[in-house]
Amino acid sequence: MAMSIEGSKLRHDHEKAPIHSAGPLEEDGGFIHTDKKKSEGVFSRSWPSGREPYYPNQSSVFHGCLHHEYVMERWNMQAVDLSPDNTYEVTVQKHAYGGWFEGLEFIKDGKVYIIGADIQLFGENNSCATTKFIHIVKDDGYTYIVAQPMTFSEHRLRINIEDQISPETKDMGQRLGIYPVENSWNLPRSHRYHILNFPPEILHIIFKYLLWVPYAFVEPDVIITNVVKSYEKFKKPTYKATLLNEFLPMHNDDATYQPWRGSAMIKEKKICHGGREIIQLNRILRLMIDATCLRTCREFFQFGSAILYGNNIFKFPNPDREKPKLGQLYDWPQAIPYVMEQIRQGVPLKEFAGWAYHDLFLRFLYVIRPRNVDLMKHLYFWGTVSIHRCNSNFRDGRCPNCPVSLFPEMCIYIQFINELCPSVERVTLEIDAPTLSNAYDSTFSIQKERDFEHTITPFLMNQIRELNFVKSLTLRSWDTGGLKYAYDNPDRIHGSQDLDFPIAKETIRWFEDRAKGWAKEEQ
């Protein structure tokens, strides 16, 4: 009984907690609690280290980690040095919002705020969507514990409508006629506030926020299988996103907040921390791409699918060595029409051809179905080329020190793009030299870059130009094997760069001239 009463109080606290979007800070002054004079420019906690914080009940516990006093002081002093024109109070405010340092306190409008842990969305088997607090407790001499362990019931903060909408908001909505049924968002199509009655420009902004990752490409991996032992068990589809010219993913399919995505939803909650009443701020994270809205109705599906597949850049890497290789098939020209027909008909997964079953690109085409394949506009392929000259004889004709070449797979992909993806207008190829090879005295050399250019020339002069509907081609590389990529080069090139070989520029110009010719014919 006590647990149920405590749980109801916890739900009531979160029900009253307002949710808002973090907007720009105003230079309204305010003050910071300090133990020293402001003229000294030192920020200090209002409660000393080692003092046990006071928690009147479980719902008022600060969730997160708090750095030591002098760590906070150093952070704030760095912010002051970077913003000498602003007052100390305004600088700390902007520093707290900009860096979002967990455990940092600041004053705004005369109220004390503290940044808490993020609220992440997650799902469980046989349960609805839930949220949880992530606890970060460091014990390295620089931080100390300020959060108490939460029970399992406290982790499960339901995010249904009743928990997220305050009674005041419900009452206002009913008076305005927004909610014809209590605790319900369902509106008739004829209602003036129905979302489909919004102007198309507004709908486009909403769906782009949910379904588009700007300035990045998405790497879909929809292969789920336990047929091969090397595959990870219980693997789920992933859609990792990477910023252009970045090597490591900025965020993956998990709910993580990135400043370049825009403002995040912030939840406020009053807590008693260190014997004081403080407002705790928790970011409510969102998925990189939330495609669940497409299941709402046919209009949502049609409008949103065009944005999801038409605006995003989909990147596919070269198949791994452990998986079946397309280039190993001796009869692949005869097998390609068969797989194309399987994708069109949507055959059961167990009947899908094995060599296409393990390929990331072809499996993606199979999963999203032809209606969505026809919406894609930009494809991105990455891989390495084999440029070794070891002159060794191997049973399968491949050198174990060199990765599988990108070109055999691309020759097959070109046929699928021409037949199934006629709406693709742009293709990006990232072609890299192998990083490991016993054929050269050094990993980077002039000869290696020459061999790289010699290897890609036939493909750029012939096969790539068989793309029948592509208007723009981009050729990039992280490493061509030249000395400009050497680690000991002080002017070393970092990141993906456009290929500057003459054959690359000529091929790009060939696609541009063809697109201009098509435009003249349409006029």
UniProtKB/TrEMBL annotation:
It comes from Botrytis byssoidea. Residues 1-33 are annotated as: Disordered. This is Uncharacterized protein. Residues 8-18 have a biased composition (Basic and acidic residues).
